[in-house]
Amino acid sequence: MSKQKVQGPYIGSNAVVAETARVEGEARVNGSARVDGEARVDGEARVDGKARVTGSAHITGKARVTESAWVRGSAQVTDSAHITGKARVRGSAQVTDSAVVAGKARVTESAWVRGSAQVGDSAHITGKAVVTDSARIRGSAQVTDLAVVAGEARVTDSARIRGLAQVTDLAVVAGAAAVGGSVQITGKAVICGDGRVSKPGDYLVLGPSLISHRHITAHRDEKIGVRVNAGCFTGTIDEFAAAAERKHAKDPQQLAQYKRFAKFFCEHFAAMDAAE
Prior knowledge:
Largest sheet: 11 strands, parallel
Number of domains: 3
CATH topology of the largest domain: UDP N-Acetylglucosamine Acyltransferase, domain 1
Strand order of the largest sheet: 1-4-7-10-13-16-19-22-25-28-31
Low-confidence stretches: none
Distance between the termini: 79 Å
Number of helices: 2
Structural class: alpha/beta
Number of strands: 36
Mean pLDDT: 96
CATH architecture of the largest domain: 3 Solenoid
């Protein structure tokens, strides 16, 4: 004889639901979790571990808030989203779909994390920023203002995406790089080091290369002027040309292509400088 499904909300013996908070539907509050203020947990949502839901926050759908995570203010966590670790979601922020916010990450103000995006470590999504699709934000990276990170883009280390900037496709922004203005970082671009990109001419991607089929990115850099990123290599245009000479001395076609790339990078940024 099959067990009949238990209907209605469940509040564990060590959990606390206080003030005017409500647990409704088939929601579960377990462990030593606490739901208070005017918060609501409904649908098939779960609040477990030492998690807290407070203020007028709303956890619904099949969303989960677990471990020591804290959702407060008027934040919303819906669908199958998961807030875990010591993550914080506050203000009027939203985490929806199957997005995950973990570690010590923060999603604040009116930011929105959606799709299957993941935000972890000590990353901070704030302002009206949007992180969507399969994007990954790690390290102490920040996505602020009206910026968008989408596609399979990666933002990590202490990188900053701000203004109206967009990072999409397979692009990577890492190191101490800052991307702002209304620029779009797309394709297979890699912005790292002390990169500074705020307009289209601040970076250039060439490729694919003949042997590795990789794409080579050159971009403005606060410390070295122009930085070239090619696989594991990162350095100045002159250093890129010298590395190509050493590595591809016996492959004249690949060497010639990299020399053309280096020349084109020099000409491009010289033209940008002249235009300013």
